[in-house]
Amino acid sequence: MSVRTIVWGENVHEQTNEVVAGIYPRGMHNCIADALNADPAITATTATLQEQDHGLTPERLAATDVLVWWGHAAHGDVKEEVVERVADAVWGGMGLIALHSAHFSKIFKRLMGAPCNLSWREAGERERLWLTSRNHPIAAGLPDHFELEYEEMYGEPFGVPEPMETVFVSWFQGGEVFRSGLTWRRGAGNIFYFRPGHEAYPTFHDPNVQLVLRNAVKWAHNPAPRIADPHAAPNRPTRDALEKISERGPSLHEKGQEGFR
Amino acid sequence: MSVRTIVWGENVHEQTNEVVAGIYPRGMHNCIADALNADPAITATTATLQEQDHGLTPERLAATDVLVWWGHAAHGDVKEEVVERVADAVWGGMGLIALHSAHFSKIFKRLMGAPCNLSWREAGERERLWLTSRNHPIAAGLPDHFELEYEEMYGEPFGVPEPMETVFVSWFQGGEVFRSGLTWRRGAGNIFYFRPGHEAYPTFHDPNVQLVLRNAVKWAHNPAPRIADPHAAPNRPTRDALEKISERGPSLHEKGQEGFR
Amino acid sequence: MSVRTIVWGENVHEQTNEVVAGIYPRGMHNCIADALNADPAITATTATLQEQDHGLTPERLAATDVLVWWGHAAHGDVKEEVVERVADAVWGGMGLIALHSAHFSKIFKRLMGAPCNLSWREAGERERLWLTSRNHPIAAGLPDHFELEYEEMYGEPFGVPEPMETVFVSWFQGGEVFRSGLTWRRGAGNIFYFRPGHEAYPTFHDPNVQLVLRNAVKWAHNPAPRIADPHAAPNRPTRDALEKISERGPSLHEKGQEGFR
Amino acid sequence: MSVRTIVWGENVHEQTNEVVAGIYPRGMHNCIADALNADPAITATTATLQEQDHGLTPERLAATDVLVWWGHAAHGDVKEEVVERVADAVWGGMGLIALHSAHFSKIFKRLMGAPCNLSWREAGERERLWLTSRNHPIAAGLPDHFELEYEEMYGEPFGVPEPMETVFVSWFQGGEVFRSGLTWRRGAGNIFYFRPGHEAYPTFHDPNVQLVLRNAVKWAHNPAPRIADPHAAPNRPTRDALEKISERGPSLHEKGQEGFR
């Protein structure tokens, strides 16, 4: 069965900026979804900020294996309720791929527990991505390095938790470096951050970038059934203890009471 | 100079429950602070939920190296504003030690980006903590294992991100296990979670527990100056690039503009 | 295409000890291989210490995706040359699953760069394995805990490097705990250590253990082409630099010279 | 008490190459030791390949907190026996700092369990090191980036295990990047790899490099008593079990027997 993927696009600059509209006439989200659908193992659809619930209803998330997120100008417009809903889905097993300026999206910051800040420059400079983990599934089929002739610069230090793995590090023409491909797990959900993708440049038309995205979607897919309640904190009563024990000492909780939150 | 430490106590059950008041007549926070102050390298004071700003004003946090947090019944009463203030301090370099039921505190969940859930049982059963990282600074002076005759059980799976290091794993009489000493870094702040400490038992009077707490405070202390703004995302203009480059291609941002958030 | 797997068995106690021969009449390696072959996605064969090259010729390793290793009494009899050959295969992308007493095998210690020591007791006591990473691929289809009524005890501290992920932690009847499922990556190779499997007990007949093994083989499989020379340290001559540079300053190496090793 | 440090230098090119001798007339090891001794918290001495036991007798290692290692042309001349002795000291708690071409030293490869390979070019190009972990103790007092005008290039992928932390990433003029400051723990020993230090350039005279080395020595110091036998795998007999158990089932080991290795 193919990996059910939603490409979430903010869809703001595509509507308001001629340059962006020229590069991505159907929106960045559709460009990315097309790139994903080129792989028969992936079935990608799209969702945007402007839709009801930003297109991310509980029903739809329940039927989604991987969510790809691109946002920039309108991070603040994303509803907290939807952020928590997405976080729950990730903890329950949905994969999440955060692209470029999504480093400052509410959902990425929520899952990192960190500021996710960096330095930046928009000068159309050359970026060269280097593999740091050869033969990592996310790098399948890629050479040891590839270039994007025009990109926005993001520079270290990048304010994220130490990753599970560093997959790519970027070199920038202006003298900076950046850990541009990083993995984490949160609950049962696999998370990948991928740096390139400034909307003023044709990055998502690049074949190597498209290959990374397809690889990443397949890597992020956790085929296990979604965890129904990723917050569950069940009491295991004494009578059901796996090894026979007797209650001793004083007690704070009454029988059958739920724990405090 | 000694490590300036605040022991934050919720201070609810000590006021409302006779058992807890009997074990900790001056509150758990004072018992813990006394244990820390036994080490001349530490200067510990206390703060409680009931104080203005929960005792955690910006000025006081700015002069604090390590914050120790114990809460249980009143997690929900901690103000969001204070949670964000503490998170900022941690990202800027303040250490944080979360004790026992603080796994569900707002500040710990905020920094983990995860549900932090577990299973539990209050039966006064025996817990035995095993070192998994011999000679770790947090385990200095401890034997390979030590026991707490009466404790609440916490069981795996524990819903936290993979730690930087696992320092202790607990065995429970009723048949469960728990990763009971875990470290992470978030920004410049060192974080340690330590499992024992149910308020119905005299855990914080235990000499081994007190030694762990003193070790942990010293381990968590980052002597570097606090980062003033842990969210800063500075633009590095083209004219100041470390390697000479020229702007090329289209541009989205106007000169001198701040980045989107 | 199915995952080409070799189950390597030391095959000593099966030949010399009646108890072991009774439990595993065709050897532990065949019992494990049968369990793996129950999954159509896996094709498992066996190799033993007694064969030429211990059954691990260069040609055979080149055609192997995952190697499962069980050894105990005869670690010292495994030839260094074969150990290095297997290590090269792992660095190049072959998966390795080390079982039980293989914690002291030459190949596991070689890849860990650590003593891999632990404490132990052979008393036929109860072991209960707890998931610490719910919905991890290696735990697919498993309950949150499962028991082995008779097992040898292994106790912490376990002298291995901090893992990429902790998947299982064991509880033992006699009071110890152990991190019994751990993952690492070395080069392009995925490594999993799984604790149970003392030869005096029928552990490899247990359905949950067999499920872990099938899951682990599929998890460890890296489908990328094997890296031909995992030690390659190529010179990138100045004339081929990706960014135009000129040689400056003094020079130690002559042109075209290989680096020192 | 100050951190007792040995700076180990191969001391070959200083004797045979005029350029190197000109930059480091008393050898690189003495230049590094002088830089360390500028900090009153450190007491650094030196040892070289040419001395008996390469200057690393058991007695001397037993009285050493941190070992700094630089080697290049003569990795192959280091005796296996000394490598194992140093590895034992690290597992027991001695810190190790591997510099530059020591990525291919026997001791570093031994502790990594990996090929530790990379690509390289000697062109006297500019290297710029960026912090990736702001306020890390190893980066204390450093700016976010610093430059070495003349250095040998090392390029990714770097064949080491995923580190505990990435502290520095380097930018190279010719277009490559490298994770140039990485930490690991092996047993009780802290390990830091630091990339710069080609012998044909005056890198170890650089104030920022010297500051990193001083910070790293203090970071790597584990003040706990050295573990006497880091390979110990003690039997815990049934009669001494922490929880009362009885022996059951068949048995492979005779009473009091040591485990197999």
Could you list some keywords that capture this structure?
homotetramer; 261 residues; 7 helices; 28% strand
Strand order of the largest sheet of chain A: 2-1-3-4-9-8-7-5-6
Strand segment tally of chain A: 9
Task: Give, in order, the helices and strands of chain A.
Answer: EHHHEHEHEHEEEEEH
Number of helices of chain A: 7
The average pLDDT of chain A is 96
Query: End-to-end span of chain A in angstroms?
Result: 39 Å
Poorly predicted runs of chain A: none
State the shape of chain A.
elongated
Overall structural class of chain A, as computed from helix and strand content, comes to alpha/beta
- Beta content of chain A: 25-35%
- Largest sheet entry of chain A: 9 strands, mixed
Give the largest chain-chain interface (CB within 8 Å).
A-B, 70 and 70 residues
Fraction of residues in H or I helices of chain A = 10-25%
Radius of gyration of chain A: 21 Å
Subunit arrangement of the protein? homotetramer
Structure description:
4 copies of one chain form a homotetramer. The first copy, chain A, has 261 residues and is of the alpha/beta class. Helix content of chain A is 23%, strand content 28%. Chain A has 7 helices and 9 strands, in the order βαααβαβαβαβββββα. A 9-stranded mixed beta sheet of chain A has the order 2-1-3-4-9-8-7-5-6. In chain A, a hairpin with a 4-residue loop joins β7 (165-172) and β8 (177-186). Chains in contact: A-B, A-C, A-D, B-C, B-D, C-D. At the A-B interface, α6, β5, β6 and β8 of A face α6, β5, β6 and β8 of B.
